[in-house]
Amino acid sequence: MPKTTLTMDELLAQSDIEALKAGDVVEGTVTSIKKHEVWINLGAKGVGVVLRREIGHGQQISEGDKVTVSVIDPELDEGYSLLSMRRAVKDRGWEELERVFAEQEIVEIMPYDANRGGLLVELEGIRGFLPVSQLAAGHYPRVSGADKDEILQKLNALTNTTLRVRILDVSRKENKLIFSEKEAVKDDMAARFSSLKIGDVVEGVVTGVIDFGAFVNVDGIEGLIHISEISWERVDNPRNYVKVGDQIKAKIISIDKDRLSLSLKQMTEDPWLSEVKAFKKGDVVEGKITRITPFGAFVQLSPSVEALVHVSEMSDDESVDPEKLFQLNEKKQFKVLDIDNENRKIALSLKKSASKKAKVEKESK
Q1: What pLDDT score was predicted for residue 141?
Q2: Closest CA to 251 of 199, 204, 210, 314
Q3: Which of 124, 138, 260, 319 maximizes the CB count within 10 A of its CB?
Q4: Please, are residues 40 and 30 in contact by the beta-carbon 8 Å criterion?
Q5: Sign of CA dihedral 4, 6, 10, 13
Q6: Structural domain contains residue 239
Q7: What's the predicted TM-score (pTM) here?
């Protein structure tokens, strides 16, 4: 007697319709929404059910909606398929992210949270991370002494802010998604760098002040003013000269790979050049001790002119100790041994000043 009934597998085998497999992503129509489950009509591929926990967070659905689902189990004992909307979103999300990464597209993200290491991001239903090191210059948290709480405060200020980024790394297998803002602006930065040259005067905003200088955002490019380039005066604390948020003009003195070296002091004429004219070789001058080192002492002769008295010019005693001979802010008289205008250096002598003074006093008697 011929067989008159066929199983679903046999019917599918005789048709062009492929049987469902775990992991397949298919489309269907919502036919019924119940308290704990949603029923989906998959057309020729049968009927499936989505448990409430497998519906994506915040996803709103109604009867008659077309939805995309992922197959968890193609055929339960009851004859229908077990499906997931949440997994389908992720499956499609990974595919889209892999495409964006392969084509190096720039996308917009909005971080939803932050930790001390960077920003937490979600894109295409997949959670990812934007490390601090991959932030562009304008958003990088420049803080003094790597203060972790201050870094976190600055990163929190970037949450719910739209950022343009590229995907730096994506791996579905490792559940890894890393973003980079630096990569997104790289091409634009290269074009901006090509338009700049040493000697140009640029405008920028101070983004951070630290012990060795100040960071400046120049139209998205990071610049550094080293402490030695802040003022013609001796600078002990950069914070006394600039603060975060200051709008400044500075001169480019060097262009590195991704950073400008800037000078604030070179925006004005070097006062040393005019003040040094008051001194001549052989003069006996009065100066204030500003620094004491094992090899000598630094002496301020005028607001912008500082000179050095080497340890060998302090006394005929070779074992002389500068720390015992001088005190900070003490004033003494010195003889000018040499003036080097090109290198902005003046050499002084204490012992020759004393001998000259003694000679003058003897001749006056």
Answers
A1: 83
A2: 199
A3: 260
A4: yes
A5: positive
A6: yes
A7: 0.55
